[in-house]
Amino acid sequence: MTAAIRLQVGQPRRTAWAIGLGAILGVFLLHPATMAVYWIEFHRELGETWSTVARFVVDRTIASFTVPMMPMTLLFAMLGALLGGIFAAVDARFRRSERMISYLEEEVEREIPVLIQSGEGERVEFKSTARWDLHENKVNRALPNVVARAIAGFANSAGGSLLIGVDDDGEIIGLEPDYRTLKRTDRDGFAQFIMTLVSERLGGHSCRLVHVLFADVGGQDVCRIVVEPADAPVYFQDGKHARLVVRTGNATRELDAREAIQYVVSHWDSGGRRE
Protein backbone atom coordinates (compact mmCIF):
# COMPACT_ATOMS: atom_id res chain seq x y z
CA MET A 1 0.00 0.00 0.00
CA THR A 2 1.37 3.39 -0.96
CA ALA A 3 2.15 6.10 1.54
CA ALA A 4 -0.50 8.30 -0.04
CA ILE A 5 -3.33 6.04 1.10
CA ARG A 6 -2.09 5.16 4.59
CA LEU A 7 -3.89 7.11 7.27
CA GLN A 8 -1.38 7.75 9.97
CA VAL A 9 -1.46 5.45 12.98
CA GLY A 10 0.63 7.98 14.91
CA GLN A 11 -2.04 10.70 14.92
CA PRO A 12 -3.20 10.01 18.52
CA ARG A 13 0.45 10.19 19.60
CA ARG A 14 0.94 13.49 17.77
CA THR A 15 -2.23 14.85 19.35
CA ALA A 16 -1.01 13.88 22.83
CA TRP A 17 2.35 15.56 22.14
CA ALA A 18 0.63 18.71 20.87
CA ILE A 19 -1.60 18.92 23.94
CA GLY A 20 1.32 18.30 26.30
CA LEU A 21 3.55 20.83 24.54
CA GLY A 22 0.69 23.32 24.52
CA ALA A 23 0.27 22.94 28.28
CA ILE A 24 4.01 23.54 28.84
CA LEU A 25 4.01 26.59 26.58
CA GLY A 26 0.93 27.85 28.35
CA VAL A 27 2.79 27.83 31.67
CA PHE A 28 6.25 28.96 30.52
CA LEU A 29 5.36 31.24 27.58
CA LEU A 30 1.74 32.36 27.66
CA HIS A 31 1.72 33.04 31.40
CA PRO A 32 4.97 35.11 31.40
CA ALA A 33 3.85 36.98 28.29
CA THR A 34 0.58 37.86 30.00
CA MET A 35 2.45 39.04 33.07
CA ALA A 36 4.73 41.22 30.91
CA VAL A 37 1.74 42.84 29.22
CA TYR A 38 0.15 43.40 32.62
CA TRP A 39 3.31 45.09 33.97
CA ILE A 40 3.76 47.33 30.95
CA GLU A 41 0.09 48.32 30.99
CA PHE A 42 -0.04 49.32 34.66
CA HIS A 43 3.55 50.44 35.37
CA ARG A 44 4.72 52.16 32.22
CA GLU A 45 4.17 55.60 33.74
CA LEU A 46 6.74 54.74 36.41
CA GLY A 47 9.51 54.57 33.81
CA GLU A 48 10.56 51.06 34.79
CA THR A 49 13.37 49.51 32.77
CA TRP A 50 13.08 46.33 30.75
CA SER A 51 15.31 44.55 33.26
CA THR A 52 12.76 45.31 35.96
CA VAL A 53 9.99 43.93 33.79
CA ALA A 54 12.02 40.82 33.08
CA ARG A 55 12.75 40.33 36.77
CA PHE A 56 9.06 40.70 37.55
CA VAL A 57 8.14 38.11 34.93
CA VAL A 58 10.76 35.64 36.17
CA ASP A 59 9.63 36.09 39.77
CA ARG A 60 5.99 35.54 38.82
CA THR A 61 6.87 32.48 36.75
CA ILE A 62 8.72 30.95 39.69
CA ALA A 63 5.90 31.90 42.03
CA SER A 64 3.38 30.24 39.71
CA PHE A 65 4.43 26.86 41.11
CA THR A 66 3.54 27.79 44.67
CA VAL A 67 0.28 26.54 46.14
CA PRO A 68 -1.57 29.91 46.10
CA MET A 69 -0.75 30.42 42.40
CA MET A 70 -1.48 26.86 41.33
CA PRO A 71 -5.07 27.53 40.12
CA MET A 72 -3.83 30.24 37.74
CA THR A 73 -1.00 27.98 36.57
CA LEU A 74 -3.46 25.20 35.85
CA LEU A 75 -5.66 27.67 33.98
CA PHE A 76 -2.79 28.67 31.68
CA ALA A 77 -1.82 25.00 31.25
CA MET A 78 -5.39 24.16 30.22
CA LEU A 79 -5.49 27.11 27.84
CA GLY A 80 -2.21 26.03 26.26
CA ALA A 81 -3.42 22.43 26.04
CA LEU A 82 -6.60 23.62 24.31
CA LEU A 83 -4.58 25.56 21.75
CA GLY A 84 -2.35 22.53 21.24
CA GLY A 85 -5.40 20.32 20.68
CA ILE A 86 -6.82 22.75 18.13
CA PHE A 87 -3.49 22.81 16.31
CA ALA A 88 -3.38 19.00 16.29
CA ALA A 89 -6.92 18.81 14.84
CA VAL A 90 -6.08 21.28 12.08
CA ASP A 91 -2.82 19.46 11.37
CA ALA A 92 -4.63 16.10 11.17
CA ARG A 93 -7.17 17.51 8.73
CA PHE A 94 -4.43 19.00 6.58
CA ARG A 95 -2.44 15.76 6.57
CA ARG A 96 -5.50 13.74 5.59
CA SER A 97 -6.31 16.14 2.76
CA GLU A 98 -2.72 15.96 1.56
CA ARG A 99 -2.75 12.15 1.60
CA MET A 100 -6.08 11.96 -0.21
CA ILE A 101 -4.94 14.40 -2.89
CA SER A 102 -1.84 12.28 -3.45
CA TYR A 103 -3.99 9.14 -3.58
CA LEU A 104 -6.41 10.65 -6.11
CA GLU A 105 -3.57 11.91 -8.28
CA GLU A 106 -2.02 8.45 -8.26
CA GLU A 107 -5.35 6.76 -8.98
CA VAL A 108 -6.41 9.11 -11.78
CA GLU A 109 -3.04 8.67 -13.49
CA ARG A 110 -4.05 5.06 -14.13
CA GLU A 111 -5.90 5.45 -17.43
CA ILE A 112 -9.10 3.51 -18.06
CA PRO A 113 -7.79 1.46 -21.03
CA VAL A 114 -4.85 0.38 -18.87
CA LEU A 115 -7.19 -0.58 -16.03
CA ILE A 116 -9.37 -2.59 -18.39
CA GLN A 117 -6.38 -4.36 -19.88
CA SER A 118 -5.05 -5.22 -16.42
CA GLY A 119 -8.36 -6.78 -15.41
CA GLU A 120 -10.14 -6.89 -12.08
CA GLY A 121 -8.11 -6.97 -8.90
CA GLU A 122 -7.91 -5.66 -5.37
CA ARG A 123 -8.33 -2.05 -6.51
CA VAL A 124 -10.30 -2.46 -9.76
CA GLU A 125 -13.75 -3.91 -10.46
CA PHE A 126 -15.94 -3.95 -13.58
CA LYS A 127 -19.74 -3.68 -13.75
CA SER A 128 -21.61 -3.96 -17.04
CA THR A 129 -24.47 -1.75 -15.85
CA ALA A 130 -25.80 -0.13 -12.71
CA ARG A 131 -29.57 -0.33 -13.41
CA TRP A 132 -30.35 -2.12 -16.66
CA ASP A 133 -30.34 -5.93 -16.65
CA LEU A 134 -28.82 -6.99 -19.97
CA HIS A 135 -30.15 -10.55 -19.63
CA GLU A 136 -33.72 -9.71 -18.59
CA ASN A 137 -33.76 -6.58 -20.78
CA LYS A 138 -35.35 -4.46 -18.07
CA VAL A 139 -34.49 -2.37 -15.01
CA ASN A 140 -33.16 -4.55 -12.20
CA ARG A 141 -33.58 -2.82 -8.84
CA ALA A 142 -31.00 -5.14 -7.25
CA LEU A 143 -28.14 -3.85 -9.43
CA PRO A 144 -27.74 -0.47 -7.66
CA ASN A 145 -27.18 -2.36 -4.41
CA VAL A 146 -24.39 -4.32 -6.08
CA VAL A 147 -22.73 -1.05 -7.09
CA ALA A 148 -23.12 0.46 -3.61
CA ARG A 149 -21.74 -2.73 -2.04
CA ALA A 150 -18.66 -2.60 -4.29
CA ILE A 151 -18.04 1.05 -3.36
CA ALA A 152 -18.28 0.19 0.35
CA GLY A 153 -15.82 -2.67 -0.13
CA PHE A 154 -13.25 -0.32 -1.69
CA ALA A 155 -13.79 2.31 1.01
CA ASN A 156 -13.23 -0.25 3.78
CA SER A 157 -10.05 -1.50 2.14
CA ALA A 158 -7.35 0.28 0.14
CA GLY A 159 -9.68 2.27 -2.11
CA GLY A 160 -9.88 1.73 -5.84
CA SER A 161 -11.83 2.25 -9.05
CA LEU A 162 -15.18 0.81 -10.05
CA LEU A 163 -15.72 0.90 -13.82
CA ILE A 164 -19.35 0.85 -14.96
CA GLY A 165 -19.99 0.07 -18.62
CA VAL A 166 -17.36 -2.69 -18.78
CA ASP A 167 -18.21 -6.38 -18.42
CA ASP A 168 -16.17 -8.98 -16.55
CA ASP A 169 -14.19 -9.84 -19.68
CA GLY A 170 -13.19 -6.22 -20.28
CA GLU A 171 -15.63 -5.68 -23.16
CA ILE A 172 -16.97 -2.13 -23.40
CA ILE A 173 -20.74 -2.06 -22.89
CA GLY A 174 -21.07 1.68 -22.38
CA LEU A 175 -23.60 3.58 -20.30
CA GLU A 176 -26.35 3.96 -22.89
CA PRO A 177 -28.49 1.13 -21.40
CA ASP A 178 -28.37 2.87 -18.00
CA TYR A 179 -28.85 6.35 -19.47
CA ARG A 180 -32.22 5.31 -20.90
CA THR A 181 -33.50 4.46 -17.40
CA LEU A 182 -32.79 7.92 -15.95
CA LYS A 183 -34.72 11.18 -16.09
CA ARG A 184 -31.55 12.92 -17.27
CA THR A 185 -30.14 10.66 -19.94
CA ASP A 186 -26.56 11.92 -19.81
CA ARG A 187 -23.42 11.92 -17.71
CA ASP A 188 -24.77 14.45 -15.23
CA GLY A 189 -27.86 12.36 -14.64
CA PHE A 190 -25.78 9.24 -14.09
CA ALA A 191 -23.41 11.03 -11.70
CA GLN A 192 -26.41 12.29 -9.72
CA PHE A 193 -27.80 8.75 -9.58
CA ILE A 194 -24.49 7.41 -8.22
CA MET A 195 -24.13 10.08 -5.52
CA THR A 196 -27.75 9.63 -4.43
CA LEU A 197 -27.17 5.89 -4.24
CA VAL A 198 -24.06 6.37 -2.09
CA SER A 199 -25.90 8.74 0.23
CA GLU A 200 -28.86 6.38 0.67
CA ARG A 201 -26.96 3.10 0.99
CA LEU A 202 -23.70 4.15 2.66
CA GLY A 203 -24.63 7.41 4.38
CA GLY A 204 -24.15 11.03 3.40
CA HIS A 205 -20.74 11.15 5.11
CA SER A 206 -19.46 8.63 2.55
CA CYS A 207 -20.09 10.95 -0.41
CA ARG A 208 -16.79 12.75 0.23
CA LEU A 209 -14.98 9.47 -0.48
CA VAL A 210 -16.54 9.01 -3.92
CA HIS A 211 -15.51 10.76 -7.14
CA VAL A 212 -17.45 10.13 -10.34
CA LEU A 213 -15.51 10.51 -13.59
CA PHE A 214 -16.35 9.72 -17.21
CA ALA A 215 -14.33 8.83 -20.27
CA ASP A 216 -15.03 8.03 -23.89
CA VAL A 217 -13.61 4.58 -24.65
CA GLY A 218 -14.08 3.35 -28.18
CA GLY A 219 -16.99 5.73 -28.72
CA GLN A 220 -18.80 4.57 -25.59
CA ASP A 221 -19.15 6.36 -22.27
CA VAL A 222 -17.58 4.56 -19.33
CA CYS A 223 -18.06 5.72 -15.74
CA ARG A 224 -15.14 5.49 -13.38
CA ILE A 225 -15.97 5.75 -9.67
CA VAL A 226 -12.79 6.49 -7.74
CA VAL A 227 -13.21 5.53 -4.08
CA GLU A 228 -10.92 6.82 -1.36
CA PRO A 229 -10.00 4.56 1.57
CA ALA A 230 -12.15 5.50 4.56
CA ASP A 231 -10.73 6.46 7.95
CA ALA A 232 -13.67 4.77 9.73
CA PRO A 233 -15.93 1.82 8.83
CA VAL A 234 -18.42 2.39 6.00
CA TYR A 235 -21.50 0.21 6.36
CA PHE A 236 -23.66 -0.92 3.45
CA GLN A 237 -27.32 -0.49 4.35
CA ASP A 238 -29.26 -3.43 2.97
CA GLY A 239 -32.86 -2.83 4.00
CA LYS A 240 -32.88 -2.78 7.80
CA HIS A 241 -29.45 -4.37 8.09
CA ALA A 242 -26.08 -2.59 8.08
CA ARG A 243 -23.34 -4.82 6.70
CA LEU A 244 -19.55 -4.45 6.71
CA VAL A 245 -18.03 -5.49 3.40
CA VAL A 246 -14.38 -5.43 2.32
CA ARG A 247 -12.42 -5.93 -0.86
CA THR A 248 -10.59 -9.26 -0.89
CA GLY A 249 -8.59 -9.99 -4.02
CA ASN A 250 -10.92 -9.32 -6.95
CA ALA A 251 -14.15 -9.77 -4.96
CA THR A 252 -16.19 -7.91 -2.35
CA ARG A 253 -16.91 -10.01 0.71
CA GLU A 254 -19.28 -9.51 3.61
CA LEU A 255 -17.87 -10.11 7.08
CA ASP A 256 -19.78 -11.89 9.81
CA ALA A 257 -20.07 -10.29 13.27
CA ARG A 258 -16.85 -11.74 14.67
CA GLU A 259 -14.85 -10.99 11.53
CA ALA A 260 -16.24 -7.45 11.42
CA ILE A 261 -15.13 -6.72 15.00
CA GLN A 262 -11.66 -8.13 14.38
CA TYR A 263 -11.34 -6.23 11.10
CA VAL A 264 -12.35 -2.89 12.60
CA VAL A 265 -9.88 -3.34 15.45
CA SER A 266 -6.99 -4.38 13.19
CA HIS A 267 -7.70 -2.08 10.24
CA TRP A 268 -8.48 1.16 12.04
CA ASP A 269 -6.76 2.50 15.10
CA SER A 270 -8.47 5.49 16.74
CA GLY A 271 -9.50 6.84 13.37
CA GLY A 272 -6.17 6.01 11.70
CA ARG A 273 -5.30 3.40 9.11
CA ARG A 274 -2.82 0.75 10.15
CA GLU A 275 0.16 0.35 7.89
Task: Describe the overall structure.
It is a single chain. By secondary structure, this protein is an alpha+beta fold. It has eight helices and eleven strands. Helix 1 crosses helix 3.
Write the layout of secondary structure elements.
Blueprint: H1 11-43, H2 50-63, H3 70-108, H4 112-118, E1 124-127, E2 132-133, E3 138-139, H5 143-155, E4 160-164, H6 176-179, H7 187-202, E5 210-217, E6 220-227, E7 235-238, E8 241-248, E9 251-254, H8 257-267, E10 268-269, E11 272-273
Parallel strand pairs: 1-4
Antiparallel strand pairs: 2-3, 4-6, 5-6, 7-8, 8-9, 10-11
Q: Biggest sheet: strands, sense, closure?
A: 4 strands, mixed
Please give the CATH class of the largest domain. Alpha Beta
Report the radius of gyration as a whole number of Å.
28 Å
CATH topology group of the largest domain: Methyltransferase, Cobalt-precorrin-4 Transmethylase, Domain 2
Beta-strand residue fraction: 15-25%
Keywords for this entry:
alpha+beta; three-stranded antiparallel beta sheet; 11 strands; disordered N terminus; Methyltransferase, Cobalt-precorrin-4 Transmethylase, Domain 2; 275 residues; elongated; four-stranded mixed beta sheet
